């Protein structure tokens, strides 16, 4: 079973074990689901689902990173999903349209499942139901923790946390991400992100040029990250 750990996701694996949600299904449920899974390549910047469009497929990333662009009270926000989770779980609750624009942020691979088939399978597969519930609870917990984090922790500590978590999810220290996207991820102004990122670059914690970011000193970044990063890590052990 593959578990999310800081840096642990850097290990590559394939098939069922590469997506945590699929890996945690019972054998009988996985046998029910697997004939309907289609392996696809995630190409950078590919749009998987348009905002307000009918959800055609749900996605279980096995590597790479999928970005969900939403707007909350008129403010753009951004969330990332990697091999720890899935995209489109609200289909299980009968929500047919996507509230988010779903775009590939980090190239890799995923298993996809037709949305209608997914809904039928959730009804018949107890461990898939349980995984969807866990996933939903996890999303709510992360959202509330991020809200508190954005309120009380410094921009630098939040950015360090965000970079580490995004790297863990993507399974790579190399991220294609703009400063505007980072600002949306941590609920900060782009100008603040620019100042902090420049400071991190001068301290050789990251290298960054035109949307290409590499974590060069992971330990240093962990020392800088707020306590939320460790809390997230402990919650997944
Ligand atoms: Zn925090």
Question: Main traits of this protein?
Answer:
237 residues, alpha+beta, Jelly Rolls, Arc Repressor Mutant, subunit A, three-stranded antiparallel sheet, 9 helices, 24% strand, globular, disordered N terminus, binds zinc ion
What does this structure look like?
It is a single chain. This protein has 237 residues and is α+β, with helices and mostly antiparallel strands. The chain folds into two domains: 119 residues, Sandwich (Jelly Rolls); 84 residues, Arc Repressor Mutant, subunit A (Orthogonal Bundle), CATH 1.10.10.10. Helix 5 packs across helix 8. The radius of gyration is 17 Å and the shape is globular. Bound molecules: zinc ion. Zinc ion (ZN) binds next to helix 5.
């Amino acid at each position: 079973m593959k578990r999310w750990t800081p840096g642990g996701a850097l290990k590559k694996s394939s098939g069922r074990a590469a997506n945590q949600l699929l890996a945690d299904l019972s054998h009988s449920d996985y046998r029910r689901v697997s004939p309907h899974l289609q392996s696809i390549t995630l190409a950078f910047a590919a749009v998987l689902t348009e905002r307000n469009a009918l959800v055609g497929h749900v996605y279980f990333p096995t590597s790479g990173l999928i970005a969900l662009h939403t707007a909350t009270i008129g403010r753009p926000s951004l969330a990332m999903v990697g091999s720890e989770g899935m995209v489109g779980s609200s289909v299980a609750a009968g929500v047919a349209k996507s509230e988010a624009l779903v775009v590939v942020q980090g190239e890799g691979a995923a298993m996809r499942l037709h949305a209608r088939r997914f809904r039928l399978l959730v009804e018949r597969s107890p461990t898939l139901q349980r995984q969807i519930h866990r996933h939903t609870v996890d999303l709510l917990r992360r959202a509330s923790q991020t809200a508190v984090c954005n309120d009380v922790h410094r921009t630098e500590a939040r950015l360090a946390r965000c970079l580490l978590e995004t790297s863990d999810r993507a399974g790579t220290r190399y991220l294609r991400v703009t400063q505007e996207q980072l600002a949306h991820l941590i609920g900060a102004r782009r100008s603040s992100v620019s100042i902090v990122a420049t400071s991190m670059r001068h301290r050789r914690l990251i290298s960054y040029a035109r949307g290409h970011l590499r974590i060069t000193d992971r330990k240093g970044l962990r020392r800088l990250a707020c306590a939320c990063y460790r809390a997230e890590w402990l919650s997944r052990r």
